[in-house]
Specification:
Shape: globular
CATH architecture of the largest domain: Roll
Distance between the termini: 32 Å
Helix content: 10-25%
Radius of gyration: 19 Å
CATH topology of the largest domain: Diaminopimelate Epimerase, Chain A, domain 1
Order of helices and strands: EEHHEEHEEEEEEHEEEEHEEEE
CATH class of the largest domain: Alpha Beta
């Protein structure tokens, strides 16, 4: 029997977050940049995301990355990030997954002890250094897109919570950042359901009450993630640490420490004078895995001052998959039920 669609992927977990990287079955997508290609998929080809992320084929707590050639000079490859309800401009966890898949499967040549790459994401061009040993990526370090603060200690009126204070920052996605203790929660697995429910309410309030548009790309706008955190404390004179978790709409927790969330937190900490260029920030996830962040340099993004952070973490291949669509299958784009998602996405 022939199949209507056959797509091969490499499964990766990056510090606990499961992602897949498409390695076959999609030739290309219209557009002159990864941002345009992502918008094309969102508007005209969203069946691919639904096919790969909806039940009954896959589980809800994951993302998929589509690797494509880049038309930009000097760029090794591009990729588009598909989350369960959106196409974000950038993701540290998904970058680690894409790099691990590209190098460990031989799509791009691996050099030891380091492989340096330039990649195009929908959010812009990034540099990557993979530390490689015995045919494996033992660590991936990402020089992220410029990150900056929209507002510090912004007052938000949230349904059921009243007025709270939050920071709004861009780290590759636009975050509303809240101390978990301020809403009576702790960043522990037993509070996962409550963190998701309250985090979605906070995000909805921030999206309406805070104007947030990227100064260089107006197509990137609106608060779209809630990051719960704990106060940072020092391990030594040059190293700080904190715990965090990010609520990924329409309702789950990022299992990893979140690369763009770490970047947004670094931008906030720098704006407050809590961390300097070259200092180390260890960001711990709700399951205890860690990313390490550093500020490479201070930059200007439009009229805003910001930073370029480097985020480091690890990824491991978990499997190789072939996803097929039988022509008689009545569920070509799958389905979602609110027993696993607190809200129903479009």
């Amino acid at each position: 029997m022939g199949y209507r669609r056959t797509i091969t992927t490499v499964g990766i977990h990056a510090e606990g977050a499961h992602n897949e990287v498409i390695t076959g079955g999609v030739l290309d997508v219209p557009g002159s940049s990864m941002f345009e290609k992502a918008r094309y998929l969102e508007e005209h080809g969203d069946d691919l995301r639904q096919f790969l992320l909806h039940e009954p084929r896959r589980k809800v707590a994951q993302c998929v990355n589509l690797v494509l050639p880049s038309s930009k000079p000097g760029v090794d490859a591009g990729f588009i990030i598909m989350e369960s309800a959106s196409y974000p401009p950038m993701s540290g966890t998904n970058t680690i997954s894409a790099v691990t898949a590209l190098l460990e499967t031989g799509i791009l040549p691996m050099m030891e002890p380091f492989t340096d790459l330039v990649l195009e994401t929908p959010g812009g061009i990034i540099g990557v250094r993979a530390e490689c040993r015995d045919g494996h990526c033992v660590q991936v370090s990402i020089d992220n897109v410029p990150c900056f603060v929209f507002g510090l200690s912004v007052k938000l009126n949230v349904q059921g919570l009243g007025e709270i204070r939050a920071d709004i920052a861009y780290g590759g996605m636009i975050y509303v950042i809240v101390d978990a203790a301020d809403v009576g929660l702790a960043i522990e697995p037993r509070y996962a359901k409550e963190l998701v429910e309250i985090g979605e309410r906070i995000k909805a309030a921030a999206a309406v009450q805070v104007e947030a548009t990227h100064p260089e790309n107006p197509g990137i706008h609106t608060v779209n993630q809630t990051l719960f955190t704990t106060p940072a404390h020092r391990l030594d004179a040059k190293t700080l640490t904190a715990r965090n978790t990010v609520v990924v709409s329409p309702g789950r927790l990022d299992r990893s420490p979140c690369g763009t969330g770490t970047s947004a937190r670094l931008a906030v900490m720098h704006a407050r004078g809590e961390i300097g260029v070259g200092d180390t920030f260890v960001h711990e996830s709700i399951i205890g895995t860690r990313f390490t962040g550093r500020i490479r340099q201070v930059v200007e993004i439009g009229s805003r001052k910001g930073i370029v952070p480097t985020i480091s973490g690890r990824g491991w291949i978990t499997g190789f998959h072939t996803h097929v669509l039988d022509p008689t299958d009545p569920l070509p784009t799958g389905y979602r039920l609110s027993d696993t998602w607190p809200s129903q996405p479009s």
